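If you are new to this repository, start here. Below is one unmodified record pulled from the training split, so you can see the exact layout before writing a loader.
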Amino acid sequence: MEYNKFSKAVTQDPTQPAAQAMLHAIGLTDEDFKKPLVGIASTGYEGNPCNMHLNDLSVDIKNGVQSSNLVGLIFNTIGVSDGISMGTPGMRFSLPSRDVIADSMETVVQAMSYDALVTVVGCDKNMPGALMAMLRLDRPSILVYGGTIAPGCHKDKKLDVVSAFEAWGEKVAGTMDESEFKQVVKKACPGAGACGGMYTANTMASAIEALGMALPYNSSNPAISSNKKEECEKVGAALRHLIENDIKPSDIVTKKSLENAIRLVAVLGGSTNAVLHFLAIAKAAQIEFTLDDFQKLMDITPFLADLKPSGKYLMEDLHNVGGVPAVLKFMLAEGMLHGDCLTVTGKTLAENLNEVEGLKEGQDLIHPVSNPIKESGHIRVLKGNIASGGSVAKITGKEGFLFKGPARVYNSEYDANDGIGKGEVQKGEVIVIRYEGPKGGPGMPEMLKPTAAIMGAGLGKDVALITDGRFSGGTHGFVVGHIVPEAQTGGAIGLIENGDIIEINAETNTLNVLVSDEELASRKENWIEPEYKFQRGVLYKYIKNVSSASEGCVTDEF
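And here is the target side for that same chain:
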């Protein structure tokens, strides 16, 4: 079998002397030309703790690749820090960056004729972007997550990035002074690694490990640890096995392995962004997978993990009680997983889990099935006259299951932040933030700043929030996002008026404004579509090409 079936077009073809001359220029030998070329795609950059160490990990991975008689070639692509851009105009570029990452990785591997791909990823959009590229390319591939950050600490209390946002809310509410606020901000993020709770980065990393596209322990090994370094050095041998056996992402990512990934998201209480990203991942894999499939899996899977944002533990704590493999081993024993799914080790998920330790005795991070935090999954797909095309709620059970109250309407996240800061929002109200969808935002920005401000102001249990934008994995409270159709395209969320009664029901999975069909139709007749916020550049291209949130916000279906 040919192991260099793509790279031979440039390394073996005698009519390509210029290509071979250039490859000699970078230090490759005639012997190297016979080996598979492996692209190592790093999303490393200095501006973000989640990604600041990834270029170093890429070098460790390259060493392991070279030791496995492969040629490793590092290249870079972009990243956007969600934590830094949150609440600013920069957040509009976060979700579009997922597709730029996918496009750029696909471009380099195709253009350079690489035989295999390793992706080295950190912040939220890196992982789905990388996986979408792997699926489009369908060449032997492994995803490596840079790992979680260590917890910060102030006055014996563990901190993470969301602690900083919520501290701002407390300061606004007058329950925290400036000095204390500054201490929390300084200590929240002590170094390299992705945000520490079960937010989007850790959610997606964990789910991709369950999917089979990452090595065991990849998602829970901390960023700064010997475990992470050792894992990176093992990637080369694993990739060699994939190449020799022609095991491709299409052999690993199936309907059954997608179900494994989503059921782990349910058990861990993961981010609602997993819905958006796995819809896009399924499309890249050419697998039929819809919002209704998410709901079915949530209905049969309990929420068991006491992890932030709604719980008390961080990802590093999960690592210390056995990591994601221990959780998967527990789930397999409880009949929640398809153990026969192939993984990047070349073994099935069940075979991998035979070799790992179970959850540590006496741990209380993962509840037993007999005593769940919630008997069914925390992610609910709600439909109704506000969301005829669907919406996504994160209901852990701690918020209750029904919220009904008058609307407090804002036409942007910035207006909402100002309104919350001025004390406009009253107990019992449903905050409506609209024109923040994929086209209206544009880019469907995350609403961590307003939800954290609500929590910090002590209103977390007394108000709800709905939006056609989306939420950070760090968000908690009674919140509904991903509303389709969005306001920019004439969706009913754009027709709601202050004082309209909104009902959110997580038992019947419905989201309605209690206004007659006739009244909504009358308002629709008078509605005028706002101009797009961008008329050129990457966000204008995004507006013109992006699908709805219920379709994964993909940009390559025309």
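Two things worth knowing about this chain: The radius of gyration is 23 Å. The chain is about 40% helix and 15% strand.
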